[in-house]
Amino acid sequence: MAMAKLLLRKDPPVSYNFMVALAPSTPLGPSVTGALALASLGVDAAFTQISGLGVQLNYNTVRSGGSNNEVFHLPGGVNRGALTLKRGLASFTSPLMRWCLGMASGSKTIEPKTIVIMLMDKNPYLPPVMTWMLYNAIPVKWEIDELDSKKSDIVIESIELVFSNMDVVGL
Hints:
3 helices; two-stranded antiparallel sheet; 7-stranded antiparallel beta sheet; single chain
């Protein structure tokens, strides 16, 4: 009974505890792929900020034929924005960095990847609160912050990705 109380979440999840990984290429389901990605995390897990995670349903507004007081909203396609990941500048040995810079070289084909984002619980003994699987992601932008000799800030790199589909796995 005491263990069951320990596993119940009472507080909302915290936004500062998350991990990011490139999922291994496997046709397995999202929960297995997420577990494999969690096991294979490495240098690419340490991001300071993620933004743009979400979807929006487009809709068309249609007025009723004979009634001016009635409006119908018909669903259209789903719009997925660009995902932006920020972190301190990683070394060139980072698999994510090599994948993104492959886009910049223009000499090789960009291979779409599955990105796994895990929102971790503040209690390290509990499983992730939620996992997002972003399929067919490709890097569309990579940049670093301004280099300025008058500042002593850490160099932050931003990686912008677009993706075709998303699964959400939560507890």
